[in-house]
From TrEMBL:
It is an enzyme of class 1 (oxidoreductase). It comes from Actinomycetospora atypica. It comes from the Bacteria. PANTHER family: 3-OXO-DELTA(4,5)-STEROID 5-BETA-REDUCTASE. GO terms for molecular function: oxidoreductase activity. This is SDR family oxidoreductase. Its EC number is 1.1.1.-. InterPro entries: Epimerase_deHydtase, NAD(P)-bd_dom_sf, PRISE-like_Rossmann-fold.
Length: 360
């Protein structure tokens, strides 16, 4: 039985899960999509609904589905890192216990991120961190980290149920999703709409390091292709793999180009950090009025913009740059220009009436 003939996507409506659904259905397999309550917009996906923190419900819902591969892209943000570890490590454990019990799983691909190298939210960028570009062979940091807990649950399940595995460490993800807690593209598109409405400039919110330094990002489609490739490629099995677009850029170059795409006037770094949470504070009602006037699908600004997360990415005082040699040497050739990734998502958000069209 081929590993991709009955894939199960955990978190199918998320930013990476959506991209996986679109690509896996094209391949012709029977795609299963697991989420708490929402259903994938890809009609070919068979919807499964369960609370990922409820082990009994997961066993009941997954029983009889006989998945051949599992793509784990879901996580749930908690108040403390210890709670992140308990909840998110537990989700991986319980999902893989239920799927593994079917006896059909051949490979599991787990999506994590660069907090593997940077530390969790509570200790982000603190202490001794590895040199950039980040490589997969770096030792774990001393801080508790839910990514480490997820990996450990994956390794234990792989040993018990005898499947291969891969871990996919993405940088900031550019992709299409609604209600996602970490969506820089929709955040910036919504922020630009608010700037157009109020006549304000599109002001860079971050640090001098991010404005001037070299960085990279991960397109959701690139992440999805990477996970599919690893599932289908023995050369990638039982390894952790960084996944970014392949290009590098400086925000001082990127920011005015994003502003042009979004129909706003760019304002760069002026020596101070100007967080989006401060700039857009108190604008929820304004967004609701814009959404009602433009007949948008989402009148709740918090469903479109995650200002806190974009502030975290753009406000960092540390260099974030990723090495992809391990994947390249194993045969992965995917490449996406980050500016094109933003442009594609901006167009889709406007076409689907998540944000206003530029000029309205």
């Amino acid at each position: 039985m081929q590993a991709l003939s009955r894939p199960l996507i955990v978190g199918v409506t998320g930013i990476a899960g959506q991209a996986l659904a679109e690509r896996l259905t094209v391949r012709g397999g029977h795609v299963l999509g697991l989420s708490r309550s929402s259903t994938s917009s890809v009609p070919e996906v068979e919807a499964l609904h369960a609370d990922l923190t409820d082990a009994a419900q997961l066993r009941e819902v997954i029983a009889g589905t006989r998945p051949t591969s599992v793509f784990v892209t879901a996580w749930s943000r908690q108040e403390t890192e210890q709670e992140n570890i308990r909840v998110n490590g537990g989700m991986v454990r319980d999902v893989l216990a239920a799927a593994g019990a079917e006896g059909t799983v051949q490979h599991v691909a787990l999506m994590t991120g660069l907090k593997h190298y940077l530390g969790p939210f509570e200790a982000y960028g603190q202490g001794d961190m590895p040199e950039t570009p980040f490589v997969e062979t770096e030792d774990r940091l001393d801080y508790p980290n839910f990514y480490y807990a997820q990996e450990d649950e994956l390794f234990a399940a792989a040993a018990e149920h005898r499947f291969s595995w891969s871990v996919h460490r993405a940088h900031t993800v550019v992709g299409y999703a609604v209600g996602n807690a970490m969506n820089i593209a929709s955040t910036l598109a919504a922020y630009a709409a608010l700037c157009r409405e109020t006549g304000r400039p599109f002001t860079f919110p971050g640090s001098e390091q991010q404005w001037n330094g070299v960085t990279d990002m991960s397109d959701a489609g690139q992440v999805a292709e990477h996970m599919i490739w690893a599932t289908d490629s023995p050369s990638a099995h039982d390894q952790a793999l960084n996944i970014v677009n392949g290009d590098v850029f400086r925000w001082r170059w990127m920011w005015p180009r994003l502003a042009e795409l979004l129909g706003v006037e760019a304002e760069g770094f002026d020596g101070t950090v100007r967080p989006l949470e401060d700039q857009a504070g108190g604008m929820a009602e304004l967004w609701t009025r814009i959404a009602e006037r433009e007949n948008l699908r989402e009148t709740d600004l918090s469903r479109v913009a995650s200002f806190w997360h974009t502030d975290g990415d753009l406000g960092r005082d540390i260099e974030c740059l990723t090495d992809m040699s391990r994947s390249r040497l194993a045969g992965f050739t995917g490449y996406v220009r980050t500016l094109d990734a933003f442009a594609t998502v901006f167009d889709r958000l406007a076409a689907d009436r998540i944000v206003p069209h530029v000029g309205t």
